[in-house]
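Re: NDP structure - here you go.
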Amino acid sequence: MNGTIKARIESIFDQVIKRNPGEPEFHQAVREVIETLGPVLEKHPEYAEYKIIERICEPERQIIFRVPWQDDKGEVQINRGFRVGFNSALGPYKGGLRFHPSVTLGTIKFLGFEQTFKNALSGMPIGGAKGGSDFDPKNKSEGEVMRFCQSFMTELYRHIGELTDVPAGDIGVGTREIGFLFGQYKRITNRYESGVITGKSPAWGGALVRKEATGYGAVYFAREMLKVRGIDMEGKTAVVSGSGNVAIYAIEKLQEYGVKVVACSDSAGFIYDPNGLNLDTIKQIKEVERGRISAYQAIHRDSTYTAGGNIWNVPCDIALPCATQNELDEESARTLVANGCIAVSEGANMPTTPGGIKVFQDAGISYGPGKAANAGGVATSALEMQQNASRDAWTFEYTDQKLQTIMRDIHRDCYETAKEYGMANNYVAGANIVGLKRVAVAMLAFGII
Ligand code: NDP
Ligand code: 2IT
């Protein structure tokens, strides 16, 4: 990289830190992207002239609002709601809503920034956004969750729309919450505007495969990464962190491909089952009972539950982090590599720390970053928007075929682009460069806006 470009990248990053104090996850996400962009900036001097990177790092709009609601005891509760529209060059803002007590504006900004690149990479006509709240859905009754969702949407509705901004789920937001949110939107606006939100139940406008798409997609991506190395997944062993929506359907697809998945987790600990996890039990505990993963041990006596342990100590060939950001650090990465891990495909957003990524890259294992590997979820959301716009509903097989093609294309684009820019096998660089170029083309065409 030439000196001028290096200095420019450093100055952009300094500005981001200065303008966004106290948002370490946002800084981390920006750094991970812009440090791979040198070669593309050299090739495209117009990006610097029109300050494309500076503009991409500044959200187009950020909405913060009060969400008051009453709990079952009649006590008034106050949460904070967020929606950050990061970039709408390629389509309406698109991205999920996260309900988790750890959510801050910085969390939503890191996710919205990542989403812009991911959505561009998906090849679908969608911009990047994220939203959510510091509301904690754990130990809340269904009535409390409903009243919270209704209050959240009572402010959010004026900022969204099928052509403006289309939310979906993320941590703590599944089909149940999407139902309460969509119901309130419909009621306030007097419009059955299906395309305003995705992740709906197929019983009322949702797409088949959306529920499975992120987890399946992360496995399709892993399969592609192994295919270019001539390796078959069958007979391999995998560890999947988390036990939510993404983890469950990653496990399902891995098992379908003949992979033995031996461990999964929640925020309290992990289970290890040497016989391979029983997915029916996990679905019953997590999807039906909304319980804790520790309950698995009482049903499968050969398994063990480790409270608060590190799931990455469990030896495996393939690792799929599917819980949350920065859940896999440098030390865990070293352990995985030492135990013979050959591929990491990220179902979660930014689950590996920068130190962890470096360990994987130095070891030469296949490492698929979240913005590529987990793009199947949002891509299928875009397929849901397509079906809503045409008032159509596709079959499971047809939609899954489309998802597989999208994941294959994302893999190919990242792989080929990394090679073209002299960084062969670096999926991080490939994903960032492809995403940037697609967003930049549209931004340049639209002028200074
Ligand atoms: P869910 O809420 O369904 O599940 C989240 C899982 O991760 C739970 O097992 C949860 O454990 C665990 N988890 C959450 N926060 C933490 C934490 N701070 N520390 C440890 N474990 C934690 O969410 P999803 O499965 O939808 O999302 C998982 C990841 O995938 C997130 O990073 C999300 O951004 C990403 N993602 C999701 C997509 C989607 O379509 N849903 C699309 C693309 C990416 P517990 O129950 O104990 O909290
Ligand atoms: O991180 C993500 O890509 C999501 N949570 C899914 C977003 C979406 O709009 O489907």
